[in-house]
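FW: tagging you since you asked about this chain on Friday. Here's the raw sequence from the shared folder, copied in full. Didn't touch anything.
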Amino acid sequence: MVNRIINLIKLIKIIKARGNWPLIKRSKKQLLEFILCKNGLNKKPLILIIPYWFYMLKGLDVLVWRLETFGFLFTPNLNNPQ
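HL: got it, structure written out here
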């Protein structure tokens, strides 16, 4: 339980540091559908959303990867010249 709260705080810090704010501001509806699990790949009833996100916070790396995949987060090595 404590680990999930710590992961939530880490996720907020990651979003503040690496968030793609122009995209987030333009596509609020898509982000809301992602959070509420209403998109086609991950449809869930409203009752199951809180347990789903509680489970997702168990592994922060998967959640960050999904946000990077959808473009809401920049990858951490974006500024490296490699």
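FW: Residues 15 and 73 are 7 Å apart (CA to CA).
HL: agreed, and The helical segments are 2-18, 21-26, 28-35, 49-56, 60-69.
FW: great, closing this out.
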